[in-house]
# Entry
Amino acid sequence: MRTVRFGIIGCGMMGREFASAAARWLHVPELTVRPEIVAICNRTLDVPKIAWFRENVPTLRQVTSDYRELLANPEVEAVYVAVPHHLHEELYVAALEAGKHLMGEKPFGIDRKANEAIVGAIERHPECFVRCASQFLFFPAVQRIGRMIEAGAFGRIIEVNAGFLHSSDLNPQKPINWKRMFRYNGEYGCMGDLGPHACTIPFRAGWLPKNVRAVLTDIVRERPDGEGGMAPCETWDNAVLLCEMQDAVSGGEFPFNLRIERISPGEKNNWYVEIYGTRASVRYSLKDANALELLEYAPGGEQHWRRIDMGHEVTYPSITPEIFQFGVSDAILQMWAAFLVELDTGHAPAPFAGCVTPAESALWHGLFTAALESQARTTTVAVAP
# Structure
């Protein structure tokens, strides 16, 4: 069993999710590689989440508030960096210059310029394995959709709809945080934080945006600042993008409707995708996370949507029987299994069984940059390759 020793930079929710996944590694018994968390870094150390790591991660040997100390640790082979967007370029490039394998968070740079700097550093360090976190790709129904795409089961694509809908900012009295500020979140607003997740399926399929007409909305203009006053909300709350897509394999073109919303009444955490083709169609939503709607038909035949109840039918075998339900923590464990398997073997077992790549992050930066221009000009804008 190969052990890959990790450092975590940024000990918030996703850092703790990784620690929890590493503690559950016995849940994926067929793997021949495992993570071990030996170091953590957080800007502030006297907080409950650091105590949580100390109490729950027995392999932890370094706790620091300086990421440079963690990256200088020869014990650390790989890092997971989960920090606000304005720090991505600095920390990702530093990790690569230190020779560490990297799992980074989306959007992989606060803007396109930062993303290009990160991709440039990756090109200078081919010895480093680099991927971007996005767990929704690993739900069993989504993996099945991926296999259908790989097999050409949809025929010619007619239309694709995807999105990520939250109600997290519906309450106007919710205090402001860094995701509402340009200097930390960037000008993309909701697109940079939620949009990459919704782009995973189409971009992995080779469906690439040619142009975009974006309608971006700023709904709640100010929020409580936590000190008795109000602070301006600078970033976009919601985004609706209509794109003309081109299939890189067939050359066919079709519309792609992308919705990214932090203020979406009736929603909680709804990631969804719909694909309509000439031979088959699918609909999937986290509102019913273990169900896939499938329509398959032949010329002249009747059309019947059918519901398939997916169980724990995972790509990286688990001790949980297939008949049981699957959840977000399972998806995070599968994502980390995918990262470590590809790091260890040099390849993913199937095209949709690997984590999001840096090349895919460059695609969403191109799309979101064009969307900002489209909003500013109120017109359709070409997406630069």
User: Anything to note?
Assistant: The longest helix spans residues 358-377.
